[in-house]
UniProtKB/TrEMBL annotation:
<dbReference type="InterPro" id="IPR051658">
    <property type="entry name" value="UBLCP1"/>
</dbReference>
<keyword id="KW-0460">Magnesium</keyword>
<dbReference type="InterPro" id="IPR011943">
    <property type="entry name" value="HAD-SF_hydro_IIID"/>
</dbReference>
<dbReference type="InterPro" id="IPR000626">
    <property type="entry name" value="Ubiquitin-like_dom"/>
</dbReference>
<dbReference type="Pfam" id="PF00240">
    <property type="entry name" value="ubiquitin"/>
</dbReference>
<dbReference type="InterPro" id="IPR004274">
    <property type="entry name" value="FCP1_dom"/>
</dbReference>
<dbReference type="GO" id="GO:0004722">
    <property type="term" value="F:protein serine/threonine phosphatase activity"/>
</dbReference>
<protein>
    <recommendedName>
        <fullName>Ubiquitin-like domain-containing CTD phosphatase 1</fullName>
        <ecNumber>3.1.3.16</ecNumber>
    </recommendedName>
</protein>
<keyword id="KW-0904">Protein phosphatase</keyword>
<feature type="region of interest" description="Disordered">
    <location>
        <begin position="315"/>
        <end position="336"/>
    </location>
</feature>
<feature type="domain" description="Ubiquitin-like">
    <location>
        <begin position="8"/>
        <end position="85"/>
    </location>
</feature>
<keyword id="KW-0539">Nucleus</keyword>
<dbReference type="InterPro" id="IPR036412">
    <property type="entry name" value="HAD-like_sf"/>
</dbReference>
<keyword id="KW-0479">Metal-binding</keyword>
<dbReference type="Pfam" id="PF03031">
    <property type="entry name" value="NIF"/>
</dbReference>
<feature type="domain" description="FCP1 homology">
    <location>
        <begin position="137"/>
        <end position="297"/>
    </location>
</feature>
<dbReference type="GO" id="GO:0046872">
    <property type="term" value="F:metal ion binding"/>
</dbReference>
Length: 336
């Protein structure tokens, strides 16, 4: 639909490109979608035209563009995929590596974090996923979200008891963290496995700290990355949508796989994987070091300025630095 006599010019923004469409005076939203299909290859039923409203609601296909009073060359962002692209992402690749290189994932974080279709999936999880609260959240506490496999526990090595595969200083770490943080366990496995392992490790029955609740694979969402295809991730928005006291400002997540927090890249800290427990448990000090980091940042009002990749180099400002600064200001004001 194009021509010199057209009365509506609309610019469709999609997949990093802009498509200028010209439509006749009597064109409807349905006509706009057909023209969009001709330009992009995305079927009308796959199109989501963001920001297009009529009487405060998304318009039906029969609504005339004239009635919507669009400005000349109005730009509309579209979400949608061609059928051939959808076919590529229906199945998880069999050769998906367990650990994805940080630099591989980093290029895709910005493109994925705010994608409309993934935010819609998070909204569905917020509405549909049921959380079994073990201990009520405490007022004023920040949030620590922990993975299990290779983070707290070596789940691949052979042993007679779970304690042999438990990461060194696990209970000391959780006890220390509990002073400032409510603790949530989130595993990419089923809830039955989560409950059994946490019980075996003595985590859910420990007298000196409490687990707020646990999440399993059903709380995760699938996203598509150009390099790795479909991957399952842990969007913290599911928790934030259910508990308004927590947000990116006061939440930190530990996981040994960076792709698990690709929807919240700034909030995640990639912990070193704990493997081969029998060989490494005498020298692994990761949780001890991270206990100090959690203590240091607990006093901060906002975590969003932190770069958790550099956690080992983080040094909190000393109290006397603030005092010295205040005293200098007082002296300077007194001298004037």
């Amino acid at each position: 639909m194009s021509g010199e006599g057209s009365d509506h010019t609309v610019v469709i923004k999609w997949s990093g490109q802009e498509f200028r469409l010209s439509l006749p005076k009597d064109a409807t939203v349905g006509d706009l979608k057909k023209a969009t299909q001709a330009a992009t290859g995305v079927l009308p039923e796959r199109q989501k035209l963001l920001g297009l409203k009529f009487k405060g609601k998304p318009p039906g296909d029969d609504v005339a563009l004239t009635d919507m009073k669009l400005k000349p060359s109005t730009k509309i962002m579209m979400m949608g995929s061609r059928e051939e692209e959808l076919d590529k992402v229906k199945e998880v690749p069999k050769d998906l590596p367990e650990v994805v290189n940080d630099f591989d994932i980093e290029e895709e974080e910005i493109a994925i974090e705010n994608r409309e279709e993934y935010l819609a999936k998070i909204e569905r999880r917020i509405k549909e996923y049921k959380i079994n609260v073990l201990n009520e959240p405490r007022e004023g506490k920040k949030l620590l979200v922990l993975d299990i496999d290779y983070t707290l526990f070596d789940h691949r090595s052979v042993a007679e008891t779970a304690n042999e595969l438990m990461r060194p200083f696990l209970h000391e770490f959780l006890e220390s963290a509990y002073e400032n943080y409510d603790i949530v366990i989130w595993s990419a496995t089923g809830m039955k496995w989560v409950e059994v392992k946490m019980k075996e490790l003595g985590v859910t029955s420990h007298p000196n700290y409490k687990i707020c609740f646990m999440l399993d694979s059903l709380a995760m969402i699938s996203v598509h990355t150009p390099k790795y295809g479909v991957i399952e991730v842990k969007p913290l928005g599911v928790i934030w949508g259910k508990y308004e006291q927590w947000s990116a400002k006061n939440t930190i997540m530990f996981d040994d796989i960076r792709r698990n927090f690709i929807m919240n890249p700034q909030t995640g800290l990639r912990i070193r994987a704990f493997r081969e427990a029998h060989f490494n448990r005498d020298k692994d000090r990761e949780l001890l070091k991270l206990s100090k980091y959690l203590k240091h940042i607990a006093a901060l009002e906002d975590f969003t300025d932190l770069n958790h990749r550099h956690w080992e180099r983080y040094r909190p400002k000393r109290k006397h630095e603030h005092t010295d600064s205040s005293e200098r200001q007082l002296k300077e004001s007194g001298d004037t």
